[in-house]
Amino acid sequence: MKVFIILSLLLLSACGAKRSSFKIGETTRADVIAEKGEPLSEEKLPAVKDGSMMKFKNNESIQLKGDLVSNRFTNPSGDEKLVMWWKHKFKSCPFMKLTTLPQDPKAHTQPEVEMACPEQGLSVIYTQGSDTISRVVEYEKK
Amino acid sequence: MKRNKLLLLVALASVGCSRSNDYPTLLSQLEKSAPDEKIAERKVATLAADLCLKDVFSVATLKSEIKELEKKYASGTKVKGKWKHLNLEDLPIPQANFLNTHGKRLGDLNDADAIDYSACKDLPCIFNKIYGKEDNVAGYVHYLWFLKMGNYLTAHNTVYGGSYRDIKPGVYNEKVFKVSDYLWSENELYAFWRLFHMIKAPHTELNYLTEIQRVPRGEYFGFMSSMTCGLAWSHGIVSLQDGCLPTGTDAHPGTFYESVLHELTHQVDYHQGRKLKKSYRSDEPDYLAVSNFFLNEYKDDAGKTVRQWEHKPGIKLASSYAGTSPAENFAETIAFFRVEGSTTKKNISPEHWSFTSKNYFFDKNFQNSDLVKEWMVNHASLISQLAFRAVGNCSKSSQGFASTYFKKTDFITPLLPAMINCLGAKATEISKEVQAKVKVSDPDGCRVLSGYSPSSDWESGFKSEVNGLMNKYLQELQTDKTYFAKVQAFYDEIPNRTIANSAFLSCAEVASEETCYQTEVLRLAAEKIAPLNLPSSHAQDLAELYLTSHSIADTREYLNGYYKAFVLSHKAQIDLEAKDLWAKCEAIPLSDDLPPSGKFFSVGDGYMASSLFNCLNADFPEGAKSIVRNLAVGELKVQHPKEEAILHEEVLPELQKSLLEIYKQKRAKENKAALEFIQNDQGILRKKMLADFVWVKDVLNVSNLNKDCQTLALVKIDFPLAYQLRSPVFGGLVESACRDIHLAPEYNTWLEESKSVFAEKSVAGLEKRILELATTKAKGCLGQYPVDTNLNRIRFKKEREACLLGEWAAIEASAITEFSADPLVIKFKVDVTAVKSQLETNRRRLQLKVIKENF
Fold this sequence. Notes:
A: alpha+beta; 8-stranded antiparallel beta sheet
């Protein structure tokens, strides 16, 4: 019984750590590797000063500025795939921001929209009119 | 299929299939109850060789196609209600469904009475009144499009413009247009008709596509580049502009087909994406792999999110536009695959070609040679009959023929030259006759067969086919004079779908469905052929011919279409279930206590209270089941498991659409009430905000003051919203309630009275700013003297602190400069020296706080 409880606690702590383990602006590259193992790939970001991107399984990308984690991009899961879920989550966000992301000017599909709650350091990306979130972005809280 | 495999499959039939033959099917009841009228075939007695599909585009042809499709609705639930003078119950169900759903969006949307429909007794007539014509193809094409595709090819004067423009009926690009400017030309209507004979599922199963609209003739979109000829909106609207609509001729089709198919394919992308809980199906890894795209995604130095699609080396594209993004690639590739098969095969990679064929065209290809092969199969019965007749006639005829079509080595039995010449001449006639039939019945017929060279693809394929048949008949006639009469009976049965439908419904296991279907079709066909006492190899040929004419993909599409029509014929029942479901959930007190959860019903990127959303989603599956359980033909309800599963799949989107329609109505009603509330406010909210100032958190910064005001004002609005977020609805109201609130006399009186408190707040504000600047500096110091290891944490401790504290004086000076320039500090003549002195007292505390939080 004791073993079961300990195992359950270990499991809970491991699952609970999934999204919150990184502190944007504080977690280092070494911390990320210690937790997630070596990335599938790592590339410099020419357009970002001292920027690089580490890619992991499940389409998770971690952006670094120098040695520190600056952003994290993940796929949503479960109910978090719903735009509605995030509208509720950001409802209390005093200055929720909607930004239309630039796309190839030749494209004639609807643009992507970023719905951001800077106070929570979170934004989500979805295609205008769609009910489904394509990406969750974590960044430094403001 | 090889014969040995065939025998093996038939032998395994009784053990390999999971059958559900014991249950009666609605399908058999439906077929019995459908009106047994002979529908006029699209047939021309003696076909001129130069006739094309367009030559049979007539009211009579369209009417016969409508009649055939309407048969599927015969046993449905009559729709109650009225549309203008018409009782919906008196109309065929699909016409009533159309008027129930789209009846308010017909003709001039500025004036519903601008067109006199009083003489009309059916939907085609209503459309024709909008066109100002009598008994014209226009009305029938519009209705036929709805019957076949399930969406509305519009005949009204609006074009959706998203957030780019307001929708004003009769106005586009700020110019006024007549309704007729928004209507389709006769060539365009023909092209839509030709197109829907070219496409199958998934393009014909776009449940969420509602309207296909036409931009007024001569106009561009205005908000897009003038190169854009069509737009596909994710919530189910396609808009087309002149540039997408050149129709050409049957022999040389214009760009209409690839353009319209491109936009419909965007809808397929949205539709399939929605099923996967994604925005686009084309963003899935399997499509990115075959199309060679990858996403470059990051946040730039300014904190802006960048997401741009890039090409992998070696990418091959159906067109240059296909390189824009996976979504455009998907739409472009599928459109060109269908319309320009031969060119597209060369332009895209073999993997991409196979992927497209397998997933979007039931493994079919559309190169000229592929089309010709298919026509041979489709017309196998006719070719066989004509070949048999030719063999009989040439055996008896003494007439001389000059033909070099066949050589004596083409035949396995020795023949006289006169017989070879006769068969050759007859084969040439058969070829012409079948080609003529293909040209008037197949949308690609004239394009492929009317070229400058009379299609070598056709001749080589046809010659081998007819030669094989003639050889067989020459042999059979020597032994059995009644052979033709025997096989003719089965040839006549080939178009009958009964065997195929029965086989499909009897195979329930998804994993083995295709093998089971093939086995079952061959078994049932063999049973049907058995009484003919044919040689076993010929019997097998005939059974295989039946299977070739009824592939599983074809049967699945036919049955899905049939069941879809059946479900739509009971749309009134679905609407009723949706209303009941909504009423039940609406009765629960509104609350957002729990987060929204559910996968069955959603409202695009809209909003609703989570209690309602969760209730609708929780009860949705039972609601759908209840609808299926109540579907019946006469006394017979659904019993057959596979039939039930298919019907369930067809009911889901219809129930979703009915609920969405209720949502739209409720939201519009709520929005109207909210607007009235805003109009009646007349400064009440501002008065509430000026009644007390407990909400003020930052007296130094006017912008923050305004934000705090707006945040609280939003909460103070006493108007419950279930279908919208508060900020978009009341944003304007709170903005006006808080505008220049720092200038309001009430605020300034409060400020004067609170001067002493203000001084305290001032210092607090200044300290906050110092902490912000110091934290930024501390992060810089960390880069220079990291804490990435325990050793570094200890080794650089002194250097890190020195780095921060060495700049402290400059940080304070910078904050004090900003502070001194603040209008309120100036206004209240705050004693900066006293503030500085207080800062000195608190300096060490602030320094320790920054060190502790950052180092």
